[in-house]
Design brief:
The chain has 3 helices and 2 strands; from the N terminus they run ββααα. It is mostly helical and about 110 residues long. The chain has 2 domains: about 35 residues; about 70 residues. Helix 2 packs antiparallel against helix 3.
């Protein structure tokens, strides 16, 4: 007998409903933490704080990938890790392009 109610084991997009609920709650918690706790004040953050925040979110993403590897197998884990690395490299490319555009148009910092 499972500790979870039967409806939480119903499949949704190939996985149990409880798995999607845990994922949605994790995303909502991280958003609330980021927007409600870490960035209450409207201020410019420094490089050190930015690097710490990036390292924290990358760590959470890699822990999620490790969990996927363990729970769904190496194929799913590698697919996630590949997608994560591609997405991270594309986002860094976007940051570089935006920085070039801002410097070209001499947009003030504030």
């Amino acid at each position: 007998m499972s500790a979870l109610p039967e409806f939480l084991h119903l499949p949704l997009m190939g996985q149990a409903l409880w798995l999607w609920l845990v994922f949605a709650c994790t995303v909502a918690t991280l958003l609330a933490l980021d927007l409600g706790v870490l960035h209450k004040a409207d201020r410019e953050i420094g490089i050190r704080e930015s690097l710490w925040l990036s390292a924290g979110y990358i760590s959470v993403a890699l822990l999620f990938g490790a969990w996927l590897w363990w729970h769904l197998g190496p194929q799913s884990g590698m697919e996630y890790l590949t997608g994560f690395v591609i997405e991270k490299s594309l986002s860094m490319d976007n940051v570089f392009v935006i920085a070039l555009i801002f410097s070209f148009f001499a947009v003030p910092r504030q």
